[in-house]
Amino acid sequence: MLAVLVLRFAVVLPVLVGAGWRRLRALSGAQLRGAASLGLILAVIFLLETYGVVHTSATNAGLIISLTMVFTPLAESVVRGVRLPGAFMAAAGLSVLGVALLTQGAGFTAPSGGDLLMLGAAVARTVHVLAMARMESVRGADALSLTTVQLGSAVGVFAVLVALPGTGSSPWAAAADFDGGDWLGLVYLSVFCTLFAFFVQMWAVRRTSPSRVSLLLGTEPVWAAAVGIALAGDRPGWLGFVGAALVLAGTGWGRSAADRGREPADRGPKPSADPARTSAQATAGATRTPRRQTSETSGTPGR
């Protein structure tokens, strides 16, 4: 699996470097380090998701990762020091209950290792989205260059891990065994599921809030459930379907509750950084008003 991860990222890197070489060279040292740090988080996400999905169903994996929709507003509120409304906490509890029902659809037993790995991936995604939005070092750099550095940093992590003993075949050996269908699938993963997905995420999170970006991630379980049931033969049972509905309802409710709780702070007047200056400006305005009124009354032009 590590060999496939190396190939998946390495396929698009030469194209990205060639297309954005001038902008890539324009990045400062701080921007390079910041993007590389984001790439390390990205590598953790892919490792957790890759090994997690192998040990659970496609439906479970997609629905558990949707908890990013809840985790992101929660983490953002902690970072910003804004208290979440009670409705949001109720929605988060509903989502957790839905995940419990979904993962225990065949009987209430301890969660599988794959479910826990996917839960860790949801947490890592939250950290990644928040870091992209709040890191000062990457502001001002274009999204394509930052995406290139991120993917390069991630593929470096995978290359180091695959070189360790006992981690499977090398990327070259894996590539030699690929047929035309395998290469087509790899190109699809590289272009659409890696480059396009994370470029758009990087572009969007710098123009809106992390919580709103998490809404895009929340559409994933719908597709994961459909593919898991239609193609992979998943049969979550009636408890699983109830859990899936609760996860989707809870994450949607949590998003709307978080937005409502943030609106008063976003729309309220911004306090002045210098109260004395504000007072002086108000006083000056008050003293100028009679002068304008006197000028208008006497017909003498005011200055």
From TrEMBL:
Pfam families: EamA. Keywords: Cell membrane, Membrane, Transmembrane, Transmembrane helix. PANTHER family: EAMA DOMAIN-CONTAINING PROTEIN, OS03G0707200 PROTEIN-RELATED. The chain crosses the membrane at residues 6-24, 36-54, 60-79, 86-107, 113-131, 143-163, 183-203, 215-232, 238-258. Residues 2-103, 114-251 form the EamA domain. This is Drug/metabolite transporter (DMT)-like permease. It comes from Streptomyces rishiriensis. Belongs to the EamA transporter family. Residues 255-303 are annotated as: Disordered. It is found in: Cell membrane.
